[in-house]
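Lecture 7 notes: from sequence to structure.

We start with a single chain of 365 residues. Read the sequence below before looking at the structure.
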Amino acid sequence: MREGKISRTVWNRYIRKQLHRERNEVLGTPSWTGTCSAIRGEASDAFMWTESSASGTGTRIGYYAAMKAAGDLAACGVRPLGVSVNFLLPPDIPEELTGELTAGVEEACARADMQITGVTGEVSRAVACPIVSVTAAGFVEREAAAAFRPAVRSGVSAIQDRAAAAQSVRPSAQGEGIRPGQEILLCGYAGLEGTLRILDEAGQELSGRFVPTFLRKTADLKQDIVIPGLLLEACAEVGWNHISAIRQIGSGGIFAALWEMAEESGSGLELDLRAISMKQETVEICEFFRLNPYQLTSAGSFLIAADSAERMIEVLEKAGARAGRLGVATAQKARVITSGEEIRYMDRPAPDELLRWQDERMTGS
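Now the structure, written as tokens:
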């Protein structure tokens, strides 16, 4: 298997065939993206959770794992409340690193208004670098369920609407998806998370190429990671009925997120490459390490399919988040990216550039 996220082909061919059990309490069915799941009790609200992980030699990987999990919940229209944490560590890691990793998760909780519910860990010779896994959870109240559109998600298991919450209905895992004619927006910056994680791991190496002011400015870009509460409040102000899909930009970068968003809806795209917002610091650090910033993970940035694009952009930017229009969804299957007079078609998602960079540094290749 190739590096990076398991492909949809592998998931359908091997994993999906093993899934047979169903319960009425479980809302939705397992999906390839698998970012969020929900369970409904007889007399309780729907409970939704998601899992995320981050690995590497930086001390802030816990921060990014927690922010990724919180963002995935927000993309489903759920405000995250608590997170549980698990560390998987190699034996040569100093004990004090566990405190630094926990502090990173706690910082993410402060930004996203969550609480750590538990921290566990294990040391194993089977791992080469620290791995932080986070499970984030929140409730969807029945009274609020009607406000969540069936597809304020991309192929994830989630509560659909008030009627489905009150009845024993198994909603579709695919949701409504993006519709032809809708505009595709980017909230945040492409490649930002990956840029910050590279700085965490290679700060000393980068200090030999860039001046201290540049590196300090780059570190401060963490404030541009969009927090879940801001996204949720903006969507509520615009109206969930104007939004058919939200996807956080994770492994594989913005190109992978766009492809997956369209693939799950069976739609095409017409996009302008020049409209993808990206920090100059991302461009320069990617050039230094010869990385493609469009294939660099960017949790904390979101793609939004909306009817009221201008209104959505206005509300997001008023709240302090960068937002812009990338293009439109089409009825044709072609996914076209233009850059001036140049026209190209999107390829299937490639492995994430951060993972490739980490692997090369670890193996010395």
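The chain has a mean pLDDT of 83. Keep this in mind for problem set 3.
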